[in-house]
Amino acid sequence: GVQTCALPIWQSNWIGALILTPALGRWSILLLTATLPYARTSASVVERMGKRSLFWGTAAISVVVAAAASGRACIAMAAVVAVSAAFGFYCRRRIAGITGDTLGANVELCEGAALLAFLWVGYPR
């Protein structure tokens, strides 16, 4: 017989990955705003985001990752940390900090890394 891969969406484990990926991407903003200065001379809302925001954001995303009850979610979180660290280092060397544009770029890079991590470790299994 012919086998199909079609599963109803509510039975798919990919739902967790699709929910966690953008959450991890947004969390990456906090990683950079707490560790790098704002690169422009004008004032920014980023300046008010710091270690306290990082603490509470990390607490919240950790609860979500723990609720996922998956080592794969932890791997995706680690991938986001690694990408943010590498991109943050690049931004620091290139423009001496971050801007809104670099934060947006980091979100996209981190979402891609999280999705690749879920794919690489075979999330649906």
Distance between the ends = 23 Å
Counting helices, strands and paired strands, the structural category is: mainly alpha
Let me know the largest β-sheet. Answer: none
- Average pLDDT metric: 84
Query: Beta-strand percentage?
Result: under 5%
Which key phrases capture this entry?
125 residues; disordered N terminus; single chain; mainly alpha; globular
Report on the architecture of this protein.
- The chain has 4 helices and no strands.
- With 125 residues, it is mainly α.
- The longest helix has 25 residues, at 71-95.
- The two termini are 23 Å apart.
Give a brief outline of the structure.
This protein is mainly α and 125 residues long. It has four helices and no strands. The longest helix is centred in the middle third of the chain and has 25 residues, at 71-95.
Give the topology:
Blueprint: H1 14-33, H2 51-68, H3 71-95, H4 100-120
